Every structure is written in C-alpha cells, then in structure tokens.
Amino acid sequence: MNLGEAGQVSTRHLTRLALLAAVALILFVFEAVVPRPLPWMKLGLGNAAVLMALILFDWRGASAVAVIKVFVGSLLTGAFAGPTFVLACGASMTSLLLMAGGLQVGRSRVRSLGLSAVGLSILGACTHQVTQLALASLYLGHPGLVGLAPLFIASGLLAGAITGLIAHFAVQRLQPHPAEGTYP
C-alpha cells in the first residue's frame, strides 16, 4: 500500500481503489441482469478490476475491491445474505487468496514460476468455480454436484482467460511510462 506520512494511505491511492471498486460493482450488476447460457456461467468481468487492484496495488486493496463488489453488488441485485451471496463471498476470497499467492511467487526470486495477469485470472476463475461447487455441495448435502467439476473448470478457464486479457491490457494502459513517469 502507498503509505504517506505517519502511515496514512494517500488520497491518490484511495481514489484509484474507489474507481476500481466502482468499475467492479458496475460490471457485477451488469452481468447480473444479462441472460446467461447456463445458470452459473458468467464471465466475472468485475473480477478484472479486482485483479487490476491486486497487480497495481496489493492484496489489501484487491480485498477491499472484492468485498465492495460482492457486498454492495449483492445488495443491489437482491441476493444479499442468501445462498448466492454465501457462495460468492467464499469463492471470491478463496480465489483472491490464491491469486495473491501466485502474484507473490512471481515477485519473489523464483521469477520463472511467476504468473501473468492471464495466468492469475485463470487460477482465480478456476478456484472460484471449484470453491462455489464445493460450497454448493456442502449446502445442498449432495456430493453428486462434484460431477459438474469438469464443466465448471472449463468455464473457469474460458472466463479467466477473457478477464485476464482485459485486466492485462487495462494495467498496461494504467501503468506510468518509465521515461516520463506519467500515465498515457
């Protein structure tokens, strides 16, 4: 996190995180009203903003964006405190945890194992799908849902790749130019 004097977060940092949270929320609500090919299948476009916060800032900023997206988005779509909300919370936090771990590996000395934005997004999307499936199986008490895992993982691969590409290109546009120190 960008800490100013006396450990305070800078206004610029908070403003950028708020903008990412707003983008995530708008995309979350938009996807809630768009018809889906299958009941559980959506791209998760709001997760591009969470991934951008993770790459541009840190896991704390990304957590704030994810929590705002899920809580406020669930309030706006009428899913707050219902089963969908519980699945979204558990899956969002689990996928964020693994994406943050994948990013940390990439920033460590083991550079060759680092994941790109697309790789992180695929990891997050597949983790999100598997976590939702596991939580739904526990909630319904029916282990037969695990048979849907291949379909869930396939949709996670596709959604993660698309969302990761969006985040990758957006991060490229938002990072300052090395020579000028300014944004495009």
CATH class: Mainly Alpha
State the low-pLDDT regions, or none: none
Q: How much of the polypeptide forms β-strand, as a percent range? A: under 5%
Fraction of residues in helix: 55-70%
One letter per element, helices H and strands E, the order comes to HHHHHH
Mean pLDDT: 86
Number of domains: 1
How many angstroms separate the termini?
22 Å
* Rg, Å, rounded: 17 Å
Could you characterize what this model shows?
The protein has helices at residues 11-33, 46-56, 59-77, 83-107, 117-140, 149-174. With 184 residues, it is mainly alpha-helical. The chain has one domain (12-174): Arp2/3 complex 21 kDa subunit ARPC3, CATH 1.10.1760. Helix 4 (83-107) packs antiparallel against helix 5 (117-140). The longest helix has 26 residues, at 149-174. The model has no long low-confidence stretch (mean pLDDT 86).
Name a few traits of the molecule.
184 residues, mainly alpha, Arp2/3 complex 21 kDa subunit ARPC3, 6 helices
What would a concise description of this structure say?
By secondary structure, the chain is mainly alpha-helical.
Give the SSE layout.
Layout: H1 11-33, H2 46-56, H3 59-77, H4 83-107, H5 117-140, H6 149-174
